[in-house]
Specification:
The protein is an alpha/beta fold. It is built from twelve helices and 56 strands.
């Protein structure tokens, strides 16, 4: 599409907002995989075999449902009386009838006859795939005219009628068919959206252009007017000067104050003001603060930007020099023998640093605390740890109380740490998705026990829990490790490079580099921020502030945090080497469903969640009506995106090599609120999301009661190795998975059904009742926008699975219990699925740091530094990362599958992003 339409409730959605909410509930019908697919050449009907899936552990310790074994009854009549035999006869007859309705029915059993409209849709697909378009239209037409066919069957048939005309280049007839579909009642909203997009494609075809708009999903930046006033800042400037090109200011604050003076003297002139920063290093020890009085207007915006072709670095770090060998006998005695002549020290007090920060418990359920870090040649050093990679395991819990816990360890290594005054432990003490660091209080080498000075998020510990020790002078035994003696102000480290040539830094700034508080119409353009203990940029309140073409790296916190306000944008930015996440988009009123319209587009985020390793994704979205599009996220121990709230749009992103360390996570995660509705996840490429953890990783994870989500037109490649599928639905209902392609996944879609009793118990809980009442879910606008909320307690675990293609996957579904609303799903070349992970780890095996397999794109393939203009190079074309084999169009035609927009997914070149291919 060439532009974004404005919907009533979601101004940034390219489809009208009404498409997201109507008729989202699944329909009860016996349409299932296998009803017509065995008639199609090359398709294997799912075998009935004993399931070997282990139960799925959920966050509250309960288990999902296990599909029963499919086998013949061996009950003998001699063991039972007549009433019992009658009971078992009725039971077996009922079981056979039910199994005939399932996709994995007993081999040889006669299936229940399909309704006529179901058979006609299958006939239409067969004729369409064979190229008999008039015959296909006849069959499809009978489905459309059927009085009892569900709405989504009718719209599926109508889409194919229109597509058949397009294949024959009968564009006028195709257009009429699509317009007829748009007027059809009781059909899924996104099918109307698909028809409207096809109408746009038809218009392009008629003009002799490619069907798909080359700017699909792209949101052009507003063109700025020529600034009426230009101010200049330089590292060697003077704040006493006029701030012109010849005599620039020295600080951003002076330029800001000059703009305030202009406003007081007569207001901003048309065109506004641009502040140009010359290339160089600007040392920052406090945030650059912009408030409401610093706002621009739509006609007179304020821009802070680097000079064209130059890099202006806002630097929150301190360069280190004067490295000395370690001579203190007491320190040498604590160092490993092999490292004593290699470790060096630097006096931070003598370098002018007094604030070393504090080590505090971090992780799941904890707030953020600024963290001091040390960097060598722009890569972070490692807080000295044992083991050097991966984890060891708790041998046995001993005691727990409100102040900490005691556990027994294996081996003798902790005996070396008894003189360490400030050792810490980092571990997944209960669950492999909940991390915490805790201080070591005492070590008993005789009993082989460690006592901690704090507890994890779940106030408990389990045998086999993975952990490692850190912040130990005694463990500096490899290049890149360091230890800071905070009492003496001495930094000890094992140099990872020649110090005569290396750039050594320590982060100083413990606040964001830039704060915008209730400011509006301000653009931060092509600035670079690095080496901070906290976040990069905070935007709170205000309207239409933009962070464009910026580089944010070497931060202990999150790159950009947006909270509240309207229409803020982060565009074409590079964010990497981050202690937490990439971007937080939080805004919109959930009670009134008023959208914020925040946007994150064309951004590259990688090497994130280094310090806070869970729940700090590349994009965290909250509130109402925000959009994440055309981004590239990769390489993180935790999940890639997190979505909370309503009517967000996640589209055209590429996500890979995330969830490298944790468990029970996905490339995108949602969790725990049944009023999160109207969210769309479409046209994304999820790949290589897997590790050896026992529960699972997924491309998209709809966790704990998440409902009403549309997952449409995604490619899931190598996103399932354990219990999860490429798409994992845990306890939710009324989700729609339509037109997705799954390639080389163990399961395409997995479920963790709760059943009616657990679902009702969940809804009655105090926590969920608070969620429901906070948004008045049973009154407008919720009940009118999401009418199925009126039946919130009914029909648990039922979702709609339509038109999905599983190619070289182990199975299409797992733990589905035969209750899903199924239509036009295809499993093909099942025998070609080959696992890439050897097997799930158990509590006795080592647990490595990160994926046990080589990441699909190694982290070393990405440059640590930017190009001369401050930008990172564009990654290789997405075509180089697609699966080597993809299903042919002829296979897709068998289910009316709409091809995915490969060429539009991920980053795109613009004025801020060069098309240079990385090595």
């Amino acid at each position: 599409m060439s532009k974004h339409r404005t919907g009533q409730h979601h101004p940034r959605l390219p489809f009208p907002a009404k498409w997201h909410f109507k008729d989202a509930s699944p329909k009860e019908n016996p349409a299932i995989l296998g009803d017509f697919l065995p008639r199609l050449e090359g398709i294997r009907r799912p075998d009935c075999r004993r399931r070997t899936d282990t139960p799925e552990m959920t966050k509250n310790g309960t288990h999902g449902n296990r599909l029963p074994a499919c086998r013949r009854s061996t009950t003998g009549t001699a063991f039972f009386g007549q009433p019992v035999r009658l009971f078992w006869l009725i039971f077996l007859l009922g079981s056979l009838l039910w199994s005939g309705l399932r996709s994995d029915s007993i081999e040889g059993a006669e299936p229940t006859p399909a309704p006529a409209w179901q058979a006609k849709l299958a006939e239409g697909h067969r004729l369409f795939a064979a190229g008999d378009y008039p015959g296909a239209r006849t069959a499809y037409g009978e489905v459309v005219q059927s009085a009892d066919a569900p709405g989504h069957w009718k719209s599926a048939a109508q889409l194919q009628i229109a597509a058949s005309y397009t294949r024959q280049k009968q564009y006028a007839e195709a257009e009429a068919a699509y317009r007829q579909l748009i007027q059809m009642p009781n059909i899924p909203a996104h099918h109307r959206g698909e028809a409207e997009q096809c109408l746009e494609e038809l218009a392009r075809l008629r003009q002799g252009q490619p069907a798909q708009d080359p700017n699909l999903g792209r949101t052009p930046l507003p063109k700025l007017p020529e600034p009426a006033v230009k101010l200049y800042v330089a590292p060697d400037g003077d704040d006493a000067g006029p701030g012109d090109q010849n005599k620039p200011f020295a600080t951003l604050e002076r330029a800001r104050d000059r703009i305030r003076e202009l406003k007081r003297q007569g207001g901003l002139p048309p065109g506004g003001v641009a502040v140009f920063l010359r290339g160089g290093r600007y040392v920052r020890r406090q945030p650059f603060l912009l408030t409401a009085e610093d706002s621009g207007t739509p006609e007179s915006p304020i821009v802070y930007r680097a000079m064209p072709g130059q890099v202006a670095w806002l630097d929150g770090g301190l360069l280190l020099r004067d490295f000395q060998p370690v001579k203190d006998p007491a320190v040498l005695a604590r160092l490993p023998e092999d490292a004593r002549q290699k470790v060096v020290q630097v006096d931070l007090k003598a370098a002018g640093l007094q604030d070393y920060g504090k080590l505090v418990p971090l992780g799941f359920g904890r707030g953020f605390t600024p963290q001091l870090e040390v960097f060598c040649n722009d890569r972070p050093l490692i807080l000295a740890r044992w083991p050097n990679e991966g984890f060891v395991r708790v041998a046995k819990p001993v005691a727990e109380d409100e102040k900490g816990f005691t556990f027994q360890y294996e081996g003798d290594r902790p005996a070396r740490w008894t003189k360490a005054p400030d050792g810490w432990l980092y571990g997944y003490w209960v669950h492999l998705w909940a991390d915490n660091s805790v201080p070591i209080q005492a070590i008993d080498p005789q009993q082989k026990q460690i006592r901690t000075g704090d507890r994890g998020a779940y106030a408990s510990i389990r045998a086999g829990a993975p952990y490692h020790a850190l912040n130990l002078l005694e463990e500096i035994d490899m290049p890149g490790e360091y230890y800071l003696d905070r009492s003496a102000g001495i930094l000890y480290f094992y140099p990872p490079a020649d110090l005569a040539q290396a750039k050594m830094e320590v982060s100083i700034l413990a606040e964001p580099f830039i704060r915008l508080q209730d400011a509006s119409h301000i653009r931060i353009e092509q600035l670079a921020m690095e080496t901070g203990r906290a976040d990069g940029i905070h935007i709170t309140g205000g309207v239409n502030c933009q962070v464009v073409g910026c580089t944010l790296r070497k931060l202990a916190g999150t790159a950009v945090v947006i909270s509240g306000g309207q229409q803020h944008r982060v565009h074409s930015c590079d964010m990497y080497t981050l202690g937490r996440g990439g971007c937080v988009l939080a805004g919109g009123d959930r009670k009134t469903l008023t959208p914020a319209g925040h946007l994150m587009e064309n951004c590259h985020v990688w090497d994130f969640s280094r310090i806070n390793r869970t729940y700090t994704p590349a994009a965290a979205v909250e509130g109402v009506g925000n959009r994440v599009a055309h981004n590239y996220f990769h390489h993180s121990p935790g999940h890639g995106m997190r979505l909370g709230g309503n009517e967000h749009l996640v589209e055209l992103n590429e996500i890979h090599d995330v969830v490298l360390e944790t468990d029970d996570q996905g490339g995108l995660d949602m969790f725990g609120n049944p009023t999160y509705r109207g969210n769309i996840v479409r046209w994304n490429f999820w790949h290589h999301i897997r590790n050896d953890r026992p529960c699972g990783q997924a491309g998209v994870r709809l966790d704990d009661a998440i409902s009403g989500v549309l997952v449409y037109g995604n490619l899931f490649y190598r996103c399932s190795e354990a219990l999860f599928g490429g798409l994992q639905i845990h306890g939710g209902k009324e989700n729609i998975a339509d037109n997705n392609l799954f390639v080389q996944c163990k399961y395409a879609i997995s479920f963790s059904g709760w059943g009616e009793a657990r679902w009702r118990q969940f809804l009655a809980s105090q926590w969920v009742q608070k969620q429901l009442q906070e948004v008045a879910y049973d009154r407008p606008p919720y009940i009118s926008r999401y009418p199925t909320l009126a039946q919130l307690a009914e029909r648990p675990d039922r979702n709609s699975i339509w038109r999905n293609l599983a190619y070289q996957c182990g199975q299409l579904l797992t733990r589905d219990r035969g209750i899903q609303d199924m239509r036009d799903n295809l499993l093909i070349e099942q025998e070609k699925y080959v696992p890439s992970v050897a097997g799930a780890s158990d509590d006795s095996s080592p647990l490595r740091l990160g994926n046990p397999q080589q990441p699909s794109i190694p982290l070393t393939n990405y440059q640590a530094g930017p190009l001369p203009d401050g930008r990172l190079p564009m990654p290789a074309p997405i075509a180089q990362r697609l699966p080597k084999e993809l299903p042919a169009q002829a296979i897709m035609d068998q289910i009316g599958f709409r091809p995915l927009p490969w060429g539009h997914i991920g980053l795109y070149p613009d004025q801020f992003r060069t098309p240079v291919v990385s090595r």
